[in-house]
Specification:
With about 550 residues, the protein is mainly α. The protein contains 31 helices and no strands.
């Protein structure tokens, strides 16, 4: 497995691929199990006849086919959750093509081998395609197994076609990530650019029926090409060809950019190269001030990354605000839909109080503060722990920092303080965006509730960041820390949601950090909850464990 770049990439992602396969299989099986309830419900049939087409379009629902297996899966799985899973996995793979290795100072060693740059990145891209196929293949196999028992009545060609489209959609954003990584050499920037584009293009596609000015952006949105027709019923479309061609062009661009880029690690060991000499040796006063401390240096290193993360989550919040007026005009239909759907389906996605969806607090929380918002914030904090500490330890940078005349605990606390400040800046920016959205679309949200929702979101991210910090300090492995923290986040997320409808989970539900953050009230409706203190306490305990262990163990060099 380690004899070529292709097989080494497969080997490095073997555990992640297995985890994504298991999660995808569970999600697909869960959603399919609800189909007989929807199909056999007369109330649901009446409801879908009454709902406005524009409103259903925002949810990816075709009213003519929703009660069929093809329409149900297209609206519930392949218009929302499927693309989220696919794009998230593909973006992580795209980041690893070049940017992650460049950040870890291992890319220059790889390129020192007798293998051309074109071959290196081409093999990595090819391996990423194979790894990314794990998600749609798992979904396809699950549907093939459940097709007859559940009565989905899907054709084999339709199942294959829909999952090929999902794969192509993910590969497009994976290619964008790889190209951004080849251009910037920064994993955080690459992820931020790709995810921001994903949110904006999804908005252009989903909300084009509401806003005339989205007509042109909608035509070039990959989500429009992806959902232009129900591929379960009409296999293959011109949209798939457009996605494939765009992906190949962007992938080719990433190869071209990589062959012409100066690798950051080369400049670090060869500071007198011509490229360096052409650059100004003048350091701005602002940079000098930041570089005088570990915390300042940490802030400087991630100065660009944080803007991409801000842009991604703020875009999600704004588009949710923008969607509310159209949904508010059909509040009766929204309430009928909530009453008709099984409570368990809402609970699975963290909505333990589905009746609140007919209010601005509930609807905006459901998109920005119950699933995608927490996901993005947790990725930011856990990823920050990985890049600021575990990756620096692996590359040998952390031992050089620790060799300075500073106590180890000071070094660690400076880095944690910088990550906390960055998280607080994101939360502050979201508060500003929330106030702007509230004013523009007149949602009537209470100011203290908008502040409280973002305080809770930041503390949730810091809780899991503190957990990742503690696990890293105990195991000396960044990969283990990320894996354990991610698994714990997924499990506790479902414990909180399903604990509201499953009696056996109700006892342990109060132990979930998502219960402390969400409970049974939308974050935008409850202000600053006293339970947020438990999230802060968890972050402090995780940091304290890390400080204690960091003082006592040998660093990897």
């Amino acid at each position: 497995m380690l004899r070529s770049v292709f097989t080494k990439t497969l080997y490095d992602f073997r555990r992640q691929a297995m985890g994504w396969a298991i999660g995808t299989g569970v999600l697909t099986t869960w959603l399919v199990s609800f189909y007989p309830i929807i199909r056999d419900s007369d109330e649901m049939a009446d409801l879908f006849e009454q709902m406005p087409p524009q409103m259903m379009s925002a949810f990816g629902i075709d009213p003519d086919t929703i009660l069929t297996g093809a329409g149900y899966l297209s609206g519930q799985l392949y218009s929302f959750m499927g693309p989220i899973l696919m794009i998230a996995f593909a973006v992580s793979l795209g980041t690893a093509v070049t940017a992650t290795e460049e950040r870890n100072n291992t890319l220059d060693m790889l390129l020192a081998a007798p293998v051309s740059r074109i071959r290196v990145i081409s093999l990595k891209l090819a391996a990423s395609v194979l790894l990314a196929s794990v998600v749609p293949v798992t979904m396809a196999v699950s549907l093939l197994v459940l097709n007859e028992p559940v009565g989905l009545r899907l054709s084999v060609v339709g199942i294959i076609s829909m999952n090929v489209a999902l794969l192509l959609l993910g590969l497009l954003f994976g290619a964008i990530t790889a190209a951004a990584g080849s251009l910037t050499g920064k994993p955080g920037s690459a992820r931020g650019i790709a995810l921001t584009l994903a949110v904006l293009t999804w908005f252009a596609s989903a909300f084009e029926p509401f806003f005339d000015w989205l007509a042109i952006p909608n035509q070039v949105s990959p989500f429009t090409w992806y959902v232009g027709q129900n591929l379960f019923l009409e296999p293959w479309s011109m949209g798939l060809i457009w996605i494939a061609l765009t992906t190949m062009v962007i992938a080719g661009s990433s190869i071209w950019l990589f062959t012409r880029r100066d690798i950051a690690t080369e400049l670090a060991v060869l500071p007198d190269t011509a490229v360096t000499r052409r650059r100004s040796r003048t350091i701005s006063p602002r940079r000098v001030t930041l570089l005088r401390s570990v915390a300042g240096k940490t802030m400087w290193d991630r100065r660009r990354t944080i803007f991409y993360w801000m842009g991604g989550i703020a875009s999600l919040l704004l588009v949710t605000f923008a969607a509310w007026p159209a949904l508010a005009a059909n509040a009766v239909a929204m309430e009928a839909m909530v009453n008709a759907l099984p409570t368990e389906m809402f609970a699975m996605f963290g909505m333990t109080n589905p009746e609140s969806l007919s209010t601005p607090e509930g609807f905006i929380s459901s998109r920005a503060y119950l699933n995608m918002g927490p996901l993005i914030m947790i990725l930011f904090t856990v990823g920050g722990v990985s890049s600021l500490l575990s990756k620096e330890e692996q590359s040998g940078v952390l031992d050089m920092v620790a060799s300075n005349p500073l106590p180890r605990r000071t070094v660690l606390l400076h880095k944690v303080g910088a990550l906390t400040l960055q998280t607080a800046l994101i939360a502050l920016f979201l508060v500003i965006v929330a106030f702007a959205g509230n004013a523009l679309w007149d949602t009537g949200l209470v100011p203290i509730n908008m502040i409280g929702a973002n305080v809770g979101l930041a503390l949730l991210g810091l809780f899991f960041g503190g957990m990742a910090l503690a696990v890293w300090s105990l195991t000396q492995s960044g990969g283990t820390a990320v894996a354990i923290t991610s698994a714990f986040a997924v499990v506790t997320y479902f414990v909180n949601g399903l604990g509201s409808v499953v009696d056996s989970l109700a006892v342990v539900r109060p132990l979930s950090p998502f219960y402390w953050y969400i409970g049974d009230t939308p974050p935008l409706a409850k202000g600053i909850d006293p339970l947020y203190g438990l999230l802060a306490l968890g972050a402090v305990i995780g940091t304290a464990i890390a400080v204690w262990r960091f003082d006592k163990r040998d660093l990897a060099v």
